[in-house]
Write a sequence for this structure.
């Protein structure tokens, strides 16, 4: 298995072992990840990533592949973007904001092991400049934009697809850059629709 394009997860007696190294923000995130899976991590310690840490990430990327798994907030997305720009073949794992929340705090460290495992199992590479498959019409037709509950629907679809959420424009970019198929997309819509909306 190419550990740069697929999550390399093995199931064993001591829990799930992940072949790639997971890039997280801090020590508490490492603790939460290691409660969920058997994995190695590298901590960025926030946005001001040190030269030494960049060297560690580069070595991990070249030798084992990396999964970027930052907090589902503005700061986490900025760190994700910065790491992804340097290492475009990295896998991306996203945690739903609701699963990362504890009071007013949002972070990987707040998530239950099952939520972390689910996010890591859906990790996928981003393809910059991928040929667009989806347009804003797809979002309009499925209620992911233009409705009062569109943000909530995007969050649910993003969780099902493992691509996180965002405003309409950002979500559309994710659908295309993560090469989500029409089948996967409409499957996620069916999954989040209430029974009364399913055909």
């Amino acid at each position: 298995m190419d550990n740069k394009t697929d999550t390399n997860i093995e199931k064993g007696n001591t829990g799930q072992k992940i072949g790639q190294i997971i890039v997280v923000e801090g020590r508490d995130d490492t603790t939460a990840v290691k409660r969920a899976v058997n994995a190695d991590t590298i901590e960025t310690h926030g946005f001001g990533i040190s030269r030494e840490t960049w060297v560690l990430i580069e070595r991990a990327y070249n030798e084992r592949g990396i999964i970027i798994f930052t907090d589902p907030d503005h700061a986490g997305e900025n760190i994700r973007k910065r790491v992804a720009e340097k290492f475009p073949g990295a896998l991306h794992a996203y945690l739903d904001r609701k699963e990362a929340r504890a009071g007013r705090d949002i972070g990987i460290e707040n998530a239950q092991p099952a939520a972390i495992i689910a996010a890591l199992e859906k990790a996928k590479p981003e393809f910059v400049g991928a040929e667009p498959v989806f347009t804003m019409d797809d979002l309009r037709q499925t209620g992911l934009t233009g409705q009062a509950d569109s943000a909530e629907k995007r969050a649910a679809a993003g969780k099902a697809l493992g691509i996180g959420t965002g405003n309409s424009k950002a979500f559309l970019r994710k659908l295309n850059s993560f090469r989500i198929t029409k089948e996967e997309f409409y499957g996620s819509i069916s999954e989040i629709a209430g029974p009364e909306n399913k055909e």
In short: The beta strands are 9-12, 15-24, 38-43, 66-68, 91-92, 101-102, 105-106, 124-125.
